[in-house]
Amino acid sequence: MILGIATVVVLVLLAVALFPSKKRAGDATPSNNASTLFHPPEPSSNLREQQVQEEAEAIATEYQRRADEAWLEELSVKASNLLKAPTKTARKQ
């Protein structure tokens, strides 16, 4: 019984871990397309503005990558804690 519950929990956590990451990767392209539809890129008046824009995009991309890594790490820790708890209670019984 407990093994069945643990199996279901593992499957659900794996589905949750995999589904949003693919969804975010898929959402990144349409959101960029949507932003260009609402705010068409204007030609830069100078090279410095273009460089600043590129740096801002690179920083935002790096921040999102780090946030995704932290989220996945946190999810992995929570999943391992959940998987450890049922095995300990099963041994006590």
What sort of overall outline do the alpha carbons produce when their principal axes are compared? rod-shaped
**Count of the domains:** 1
**Percentage of residues in helical conformation:** over 70%
Q: Bin the strand percentage.
A: under 5%
Structural class based on helices, strands and sheet pairing: mainly alpha
What's the rounded overall pLDDT mean?
A: 76
| Alpha plus pi helix count | 2
How far apart lie the N and C ends?
A: 13 Å
Query: What kind of sheet is the major sheet?
Result: none
Radius of gyration, in angstroms, nearest whole number: 21 Å
What is the string of helix and strand elements? HH
The total beta strand count reads 0
Q: Which segments are poorly predicted (pLDDT under 50) over 5 or more consecutive residues? A: 22-26
In short:
With 93 residues, the protein is mainly alpha-helical. Helices cover 89% and strands 0% of the residues.
Topology:
Blueprint: H1 2-38, H2 47-92
Helix pairs in contact: 1-2
Account of the 3D structure:
This protein has two helices and no strands. The relative contact order is 0.13. The protein has one domain (1-20, 47-93). The model is unreliable at 22-26 (pLDDT under 50). The chain is an all-alpha fold and 93 residues long. It is rod-shaped, with a radius of gyration of 21 Å. It has helices at residues 2-38, 47-92.
